[in-house]
Design goal:
It is built from ten helices and nine strands. By secondary structure, the chain is an alpha/beta fold. The model has no long low-confidence stretch (mean pLDDT 90). The structure holds S-adenosylmethionine.
Length: 299
């Protein structure tokens, strides 16, 4: 069945994935104004609210969970700048874990992308992201928000395109994926080198398998084992790994991973150049010949 027919016959509600439309803020979407309102485990993050969202006072909302995972604005802006020079044929960016919108907003404001698809499983968190992107003046036509499981979305994109709303049937050859999954698992806070096989709820293999046909950026804990990342390098390619720092301390690392086999809709191998644009102020290659490790101050 052709995609247009499917759409005409069953209507938009029958698609497994479709644009979320504008979601209402819920009681879980909070804009705390003073420390006295803030749960104790979030107070540390609330104290840093202007580093996280410089426009916080304009009405930025987060769920209590979202405070733990949101990418601070300077880091999100640095990653967006680093993707500025990616292969010009790449026009679509998919943010697989949109959260409260930290990265999606930075990507949208960078002006680099024609279309951004931002996927988030939790409706209240997605409503916060939509609210926050309005505050930052993101053009609503640029971002398609989707509520759902992004792993399911990628499976559908690759195997069952007709089950996606037409707006979500992007060409994987022209698409870059950005993934900032939740971080957790044994040793994530304590180990000097974090074993990405044990990362929860999604480990390195699950993430890489989901996106391997596309250039992708994995946003990972700063202590992640880069030897494990190096093993993902396609034959003859290197994976740039950047540590993003605020006030001299690394907040996280991002690995810029080329597609393994990237066939466009025309069946031809797509070109791929996914490299951070920033000139690293420090670079070392001893840990593995397949990674280029660098450090990037953002503030
Ligand atoms: C670390 S946060 C992302 C933060 C985001 N980059 C930001 O700056 O706000 C991870 C998010 O992924 C969402 N999530 C977890 N599993 C998911 C899945 N399978 N599909 C889509 N979203 C998921 C969580 O609800 C959470 O909001």
């Amino acid at each position: 069945m052709g995609s247009a027919n499917f759409h005409d016959i069953v209507g938009s509600d029958a698609f497994a994935f479709r644009p979320a439309g504008e979601l209402p803020l819920t009681d879980d979407c909070r804009h705390y104004e003073g420390k006295h309102e803030v749960p104790w485990d979030i107070q540390k993050y609330f104290a840093q609210r202007y580093s996280i969202f410089s426009w916080y006072d304009e009405g930025v909302c987060l769920t209590d969970d979202a405070w733990f995972g949101v990418t601070p604005e300077p880091v999100a802006n640095a990653i967006a700048a680093d993707l500025q020079d990616s292969e010009s044929s790449k026009t679509v960016l998919i943010d697989a874990f949109a959260g409260a919108g930290g990265n999606t907003i930075a990507f949208a404001l960078s002006g680099r992308w024609e279309h951004i698809i931002a996927i988030e499983r939790d409706a209240s968190t997605l409503a916060c992201a939509q609210n926050n992107s309005r505050i930052y003046g993101v053009d609503p036509a640029m971002v398609t928000w989707v509520r759902g499981d992004s792993f399911e979305y990628f499976r559908a994109l690759i195997n069952r395109r007709h089950t996606l709303h037409p707006k979500l049937r992007v060409d994987i050859a022209t698409t870059v994926v950005f993934a900032s999954p939740p971080w957790g698992g044994p040793g994530y806070r304590s180990d000097d080198v974090f074993d990405l096989r044990t990362m929860q709820p999604y480990n390195l293999k699950q993430l890489h398998d989901a996106y391997s046909l596309m250039d992708h950026v994995l946003f990972l804990p700063r202590t992640s084992d880069i030897r494990q990342i190096a093993r993902l390098a396609p034959e003859g390619r290197k994976i740039p790994v950047v540590q993003y720092c605020m006030q001299g301390a690394s907040k996280a690392m991002a690995a810029y991973i080329p597609a393994t086999a990237n066939l466009g809709q025309d069946g031809k191998q797509a070109s791929s150049r996914i490299r951070p644009a920033s000139r690293p102020d420090h670079s070392e290659n001893e840990s593995s010949p397949s990674v280029e490790n660098s450090t990037r101050p953002t503030q």
